[in-house]
Amino acid sequence: MAEIDKTAGTTTEKAGGEKVPPGEPMSMEQHMLDKGAHMLQSLKPIKQMNQHICTFAIYSNDMTRQIETHHFVTRLNKDFLQCAVYDSDDSTGRLIGVEYIVSDKIFETLSEDEQKLWHSHAYEIKSGLLVNPRVPEMILGPELENLAKTYGKFWCTWQVDRGDVLPVGPPALMMSPQPVNLGLVKPDLLKKRDDKYNISSDALKASRVEIPEPEWINPQADYWKQHGKGFAVDVEATEMKKICTFP
């Protein structure tokens, strides 16, 4: 491991260039505790993550900022998935957010204001942007057809692309790439991902041409396409509800 810089604003790197937050190396006691806990505790929610999806996301309020994302998926039922989102699939991958994925059936039950925060997945699937690394396409067929009809809401809690070495500030709403002007993934970002997994997004796009397009994509999703406006979260002080006199 590279030498630890004790200043809070500095990222350190392991051999191979994997970045880690500032801090001291783990002690032997911490290693032993983690090993013991791993043996004794069930970790049931973690063990339900059975799928790794790699795709791309764009900041809702800034289309110039695009990131590669790695979603580790838990399927709660046929209509609802939840994803822990990392910046890579390396051992030191940083947890940068969470995405919830719902079927079109559930999406239609949401209020219009809520639907504005969600994005559709059809284009990600059909264009070959969304991949399951190392899983053969012939196995993925039915899953991709189902995902093409879903909607996602993705909150980024750690903006590593702007150099944040710690998860600071409010969460950012993310949106999905779409086939409109400036809504496509930057070529260099796409090439880097494809080279890493030895795949061709163009070839995947050609192989997925038979995947049916959704009969209808709700226009409240991908709100920016219709209105040219995104959403940003701000933090403001507010009166707190109290259970007793304070101070």
TrEMBL record:
Residues 1-28 are annotated as: Disordered. Signal peptide: none annotated. Transmembrane segments: none annotated. Pfam families: DUF1264. This is Oil body-associated protein 2A. Belongs to the OBAP family. InterPro entries: OBAP-like. Coiled coil: none annotated. It comes from the Eukaryota. It comes from Castilleja foliolosa.
